[in-house]
Design brief:
This protein is 27% helix and 17% strand. By secondary structure, it is α/β, with parallel strands linked by helices. It has a domain of 135 residues: 2-Layer Sandwich (Chloramphenicol Acetyltransferase), CATH 3.30.559.10.
Length: 342
């Protein structure tokens, strides 16, 4: 695996470099390599437990404890850490940590798929090796980089007493949900809604982020068709953002507008991300597809949700984190339950 990773890194060369500084927006391609460790565990592999359900187990699988929420940008400048775990039963777990400063879920999926294909076929030259040829966002070295403005702190407030639950939405129910949104919008409403989709991933490698804020002040603004319409409108406005400067300017502008809102300190920000359509459950190093593919996310302790394809690809898993009292109301909502798998 180590040799195939070194071959793959010739295509994904920035990952073998280092950050110029812990908060720099660019990497130094100095070929120092990645952290790679093989570990043996005397314990048996427990396939009945989702790895996101136990923080201690997750931490042991990662090299130097580098599960992503512990990869502090203030302490490290390396970008990728790999630990291959061999269990007493013969099972193998590959834990990979990538700095969020260099890539996102799409980047991670691209790298893993390419690395696995090189491992299966032995070289970059084999005709069946995935020809990704990633496109990297080019950034000129600069010290003119700043983090989120002070107003952004409202979006990083954690839960006091958080609870995480998994909700499964079958494809048939998702189709019903999409139709309901469209029918509501067409029933005399002035809202404009295109066909709702799960996710629209891109092929670029990097992590150029901007923001989409949809605020609600009244219950009528929280209806599903209104939220979908506003999110789509915001998305259309950011399609032209293709540089760090434009992304930064958009975030600053949005934060400036929010800072003028009354009662900003009482806002609850619901962070939502999706890994649907990404190939994590098909990363085959030559042993076949993984029995379990997962991502660590629970320890963030921020209210929000993470969407993933079900292992059989017949629906979506929504891992939702809320305050305990809010979760009680959420999981007993009759409309929500009607779209979930029984």
């Amino acid at each position: 695996m180590k040799k195939s990773l070194s071959h793959s890194l010739t295509q994904y060369y920035p990952f073998a470099g280092r950050l110029h500084s812990p908060i720099s927006p660019y990497t130094q391609c100095n070929d120092e390599g990645v952290v790679f460790v093989e570990a043996k565990h005397v314990s048996q592999m427990n396939m009945s437990q989702h790895v996101s359900e136990d923080d201690d187990i997750v931490c042991q699988l990662f090299v130097d404890g580098l599960s992503w929420w512990q990869h502090s940008p203030n302490k490290r400048t390396d970008l990728l850490g790999v630990q291959v775990n061999h269990f007493a039963c013969g099972g193998i777990a590959v834990a990979v940590a990538m700095s969020h400063l260099i890539g996102d879920g799409c980047t991670f999926g691209s790298l893993m798929s390419h690395w696995a294909s090189v491992a299966r076929y032995g070289s970059l030259d084999h005709k069946d090796v995935l020809p990704y040829k990633p496109h990297f966002i080019q950034v000129q070295p600069t010290t003119d980089f700043h983090g989120p403005p002070p107003q952004a702190s409202v979006f990083y407030t954690g839960c006091v007493n958080h609870v995480t639950r998994k909700f499964v939405f079958p494809n048939s129910k998702l189709s019903d949900l999409k139709n309901k949104v469209l029918e509501t919008a067409e029933g005399g409403s002035t809202l404009s809604i295109n066909k709702p989709t799960r996710v629209e991933p891109q092929t670029a490698v990097g992590n150029l982020g901007t923001c989409v804020f949809v605020t609600t002040k009244h219950e009528s603004e929280a209806s599903l068709n209104v939220l979908v319409s506003r999110i789509q409108k915001q998305k259309m406005e950011i399609e032209g953002v293709k540089s760090m400067q434009l992304a930064s300017e958009r975030i600053d502008s949005a934060m400036s507008r929010l800072s003028k809102e009354e009662g900003l300190e009482d806002y609850k920000c619901f962070l939502c991300s999706s890994l649907c359509g990404f190939p994590f459950d098909k990363v085959d190093f030559g042993w076949g597809n993984p029995a379990v593919a997962s991502i660590t996310f629970r320890p963030t302790k921020r209210i929000g949700s993470l969407l993933m394809d079900t292992p059989s690809e017949d629906g979506i898993e929504a891992w939702v984190t809320l305050e305990k009292e809010d979760m009680e109301r959420f999981q007993n909502d009759k409309e929500l339950i009607s779209f979930c798998q029984n």
